[in-house]
Amino acid sequence: MLRTHIFSLVFSIFLFVIIIELIRRKKLLERYSLLWLGVAGLMMVVSVSRGLLDFLAESVGIYYPPAALFLVGLLFIVALLLHFSLVISRMSEENKTLAQKIALLECDIIEKENEV
Amino acid sequence: MVNYKISVTGKGKMKIMNEQKKYDDSHSLLIIMPSYNEADNLTAAVLDLRENLSDVDILVVDDGSTDRTKEVALDLGCRLLKLPFNIGIGGAVQTGYKYAYEKGYAFAVQFDGDGQHSAKSLPKMISVAKSGSWDLVIGSRYLEDNEYFTPLARRMGMVIFSRIVSMVVHQKITDSTSGFRVLSRRAIEFCANNYPADYPEVEVIPQLYFAGLTITEVPASMKKRQRGKSSITWSKAIYYMVKVVLAISISLLREKPDKGREVA
Fold it and tell me: Count of CB atoms within 10 A of residue B164's CB?
C-alpha cells in the first residue's frame, strides 16, 4: 500500500514537472494546462495524505483505498476528453467559418479584378 | 496592383449603388449549386437551368473538388465560390446563402450540381415563392405520382423523417430530405447565420419553423443520378438517421416550439 503511494506521488510530481516544462517551452497553452495542473496537484495531495484517500474511498464505498486513486484518474480522463470534444467542436466550427470567408473574399477579389 | 487600388476606390461607390438597386428588386434570384467533384454532371445541370429560366444567376459552390469542377463552372460562365477544402454539403450550401445574403438577392434556389434535380419544376416553385406567402418552398418528389423511383430501404428512411418533421412543424411535409428548394430573403438570412453541417435538409425545416418562417411544398420531378455514385452508404445512412433524429429532438428542447406561432 505504501509502494502505491510512493509510486503515485513520484508519478504526479513527474507529471507536474513535465506540464510546467511544456508551458515554459510554449508547447502547451496555459488555458489547456490548467486542468492538467489541477489533476497533478490533486494526485499529489491524495498520494501524500492517507487520511484524505481513506476518507474519499470510504465515502464512495471503495474498500481498497488505493483503488480510489484509479477512480480519480479515470474521472479526470473522462473530464479531459469531454473538454477536448468541446474544443474540437468549437474549432471545427471556426474552421468552417474561415473556409467560407476565404471563398467569399476570393470571389470578391476576382469580381473586382474583372471590373478593372 | 496600382490599377486595382484605384478601381476599388473609384468603383466602390458604384458597387454599393448596384447592391442597393438589387435590394429594391424583389425578383432577383440566385441559383446555388453545391458541387463536390461534379465536373461530369455540371454542364448538363447548368444547360437544364438555362433552358428553363431566362437570364439567371448561377453560383457554383465548389466544395474543395479535386476534379475540374471549378474550370467547368467558369467555362459555363457561372459565378464561383471555391472552398479551400471540403467542408461538407451543409457548409457549402451555407456559403452560397452567405453570398446571396451579402449580394442582396431576394430569392435563392438550392439546386444539386449532380443533375438529380430537374429545372422544369423550377418556374412553378419560383412563382409560388414570389407570391410572397412562403419563406421555404420545397420541391417534393412525392406530392404527385412521378417516375421517381426510390429503393425501399431509403424510401422507408425518408418516410420516417417526413413523419417526424410533419409532427414537429404541425403540417404535412412529404419530402423532407429534398435538397431542391427556393428560399425567401428572410430564409436566406436565417440560413446564412445558422445551418446544420451535415445532412442539413431535414434538420433545417424545424429550425425555420421555430424561427417563425412559413413552409410549403410544390411537386417537383427528379432524375436518377446521371453519373457517379450517390454519397449515401449503409453506415452513413445509419449515422444520418441517428444524427437527424437527435438534432431535431435537441432542437425541441432548445426552442419554445409553439410560442409566438399564432401570429404567423
Answer: 19
Q: Tens digits of per-residue pLDDT, B28-39?
A: 999 999 999 999
Q: A73-113, pLDDT tens digit by residue?
A: 888 889 889 989 999 999 999 999 999 999 999 999 988 88
Residue B224 lies in a domain: yes
If residue A95 lies in a helix (H) or strand (E), which one and from where to where?
A: helix A65-115
Contact between residue B218 and residue B138 where contact means Cβ atoms under 8 Å apart: yes
- State the complex-level ipTM: 0.78
* B98 assigned to some structural domain: yes
User: Which chain A residues contact residue B95 at CB under 8 A?
Assistant: 99-100, 103-104
Please choose, from the candidates B132, B12, B191, B39, the residue with its C-alpha nearest in 3D space to the C-alpha of residue A108.
B12
Distance CA B53, CA B27 (A): 13
Nearest residue, CB atoms, B82 vs list A103, A112, A113? A103
Check which CATH number belongs to the domain holding B203 and give it. 3.90.550.10
Is residue B6 in a domain? no
Judge whether B178 lies within some domain.
yes
Summarize pLDDT for B161-197 with one digit per residue, the tens: 999 999 999 999 999 999 999 999 999 999 999 998 8
Q: Which domain holds residue B214?
A: 12-263
Question: Which residue in this structure is represented by grid cell 474544443?
Answer: A87
Query: B113-163: per-residue pLDDT in tens?
Result: 887 888 999 999 999 999 988 999 999 988 876 666 667 777 788 888 999
- Is A103 within 8 Å of chain B by CB? yes
Grid coordinates of B25? 428588386
Q: First-to-last CA distance in chain A?
A: 80
Q: CB-based contacts of B42: which residues, under 8 Å, 6+ apart?
A: B33, B35, B60, B69, B72, B73, B76, B113
The answer to whether residue A96 neighbours chain B at the CB level (below 8 Å) is yes
Domain count, chain B: 1
Residue B146 burial class via C-beta count within 10 angstroms: exposed 0-12, middle 13-18, buried 19 and up: middle
Q: Count the domains in chain A.
A: 1
Which of chain A's residues have a Cβ under 8 Å away from the Cβ of B4? 112-113, 116
Q: Closest residue of A to B3, CA-based?
A: A116
Q: For residue A107, what are the domain limits?
A: 2-115
Residue B210 dihedral angles phi and psi, to the nearest 5°: -65, -30
